[in-house]
Amino acid sequence: MAKVTLTREAAGELEDLPLVIHSRVLLLLERLAKWPAVSGAKRLTGPLAGRYRLRTGDYRLQFRVEGQAVIVERIGHRDRFYE
Fold this sequence. Notes:
Elements: E1 3-6, H1 8-15, H2 19-32, E2 42-43, E3 51-56, E4 59-66, E5 69-77
Parallel strand pairs: 1-5
Antiparallel strand pairs: 2-3, 3-4, 4-5
């Protein structure tokens, strides 16, 4: 089991989400605790190489893995997520 932590930025983004999306993202965070047995995680490329993303509908969760820790860096809508 991995320890899931959120950066300060990701924690703020989580609190700003609509209630329905907020609850769906909380379910993603529970799934991340089972890393590396997480389905749907996609490795990012380019300037975001070394990071992964999970999606729920139009929202994305960006994270990186450091040993047994999963660090969530960003949470947001897909149209502004990769900027």
